[in-house]
């Protein structure tokens, strides 16, 4: 109230001086300049006084390592690092230097933030959370001020929670800790990183409140080497995509509160979700429950999960309505993919559909037999054959192919280049950087052309299969892998 009265009296005084004939130009200049300086100072104070997330300590999260599925190796490595903190007296007797920082790296959605919260619970530490983007501002020095404030908050917050430990978690640390010298037009980034390095170096084992820094990133290649060297981030824990057993464990966690029908087979779902992160699997279980609710079903059945896999992978169904001629071409294209997929690996087709989803007008989903991390020459050649099969089917049956095959061609060429890089071509082991462009092109097209001829010869003798499967697709828009294999068996296609 006093502030408003003072402003009002000041304005009244200026108006009175103007009426009395005084030159108020200098006064107005100083008033405007003072207001501008006050605004800048206030903004700097506002952006500097960042209140970091202090949600009441780890105990309120009730998140433990048992709540995180599919990351057995990463959890064990992280727990070992945390044991150094819990047993600090015994490690001092052995002359072990305490760990100051732990870096969690891996793709998005793999559970890095959950692991940080579980770590705080495991060590009974106060949990202070921040994001790398919170430290970057247009005002010089603000980022460094926020870094100091973050560590000060951790040391002040832990005693209030009656804890001896504080765990600081910085998500997306690549924004804060990017390589120095890349932003020459703005030194704010470098100053902020320098302050973080100073704070990490200042962590001591004999501090009244022992602070551990845990950070997460999916772009570890962007981090400054000074940040990731031993003595700062002492442990780099890889939180990778889960394998099949891990996906099975995650599915059990996310379906334990959901009513599942007797036909639900989580092992099948885990096998068909190769490449899914924990976040994908959580979304999968949630989407399946939503589909069951839409149908007013009391339980979630296998068909709901199958539909959810397609939705998570490809996106929701679109309102596109291709013409009858286009639908026929799409069906032939996808049947070609499916036919060659069954040829190179029997039982590989999970679903075949011409329902538009995401960017695709139709698609064929394969079921990986096992999680594969190393690829042989035969495997890559078979993959190229499957990629080319859609366009080959269009050309063989309809006489030409459409622009819908452009993405298949791009993938086939990338796979051929991977073979060339791995020494699987006729050239043997080569250096791609020194390989002449025309020779590289000839080699890649040669690899693709061999598989194209292989695919066309097989499709030419399978036109009856195309007619049968196409009729089903045009009528129902979808066919399962089991139905497709039954048709292949009836027509004795090998």
Can you tell me about this structure?
This protein is an alpha/beta fold. The protein folds into 4 domains: 2-48; 58-238, P-loop containing nucleotide triphosphate hydrolases (Rossmann fold, 3-Layer(aba) Sandwich); 244-314, Helicase, Ruva Protein, domain 3 (Orthogonal Bundle), CATH 1.10.8.60; 324-490, Methane Monooxygenase Hydroxylase, Chain G, domain 1, CATH 1.20.58.760. It contains 19 helices and 8 strands. It starts with a helix and ends with a helix. The model is unreliable at 41-49 and 54-60 (pLDDT under 50).
Regarding CATH, which class of the largest domain? Alpha Beta
Q: How many H/I helical runs? A: 19
Order of helices and strands: HHHHEHEHEHHEHEHHHHHEEHHHHEH
Which CATH architecture of the largest domain would you pick?
3-Layer(aba) Sandwich
Summed over residues and divided by their number, the pLDDT gives a mean of: 83
What is the 3D form? extended
CATH topology of the largest domain: Rossmann fold
Strand order of the largest sheet: 2-3-4-1-5
> Describe the biggest sheet?
5 strands, parallel
* Helicity, as a percent range: 40-55%
CATH homologous superfamily label of the largest domain: P-loop containing nucleotide triphosphate hydrolases
Roughly what fraction of the amino acids lie in strands?
5-15%
Count of domains? 4
- Residue ranges: pLDDT <50 for 5 or more in a row? 41-49, 54-60
Distance between the termini: 88 Å
* Radius of gyration from the alpha-carbon trace, in angstroms: 31 Å
Structural class: alpha/beta
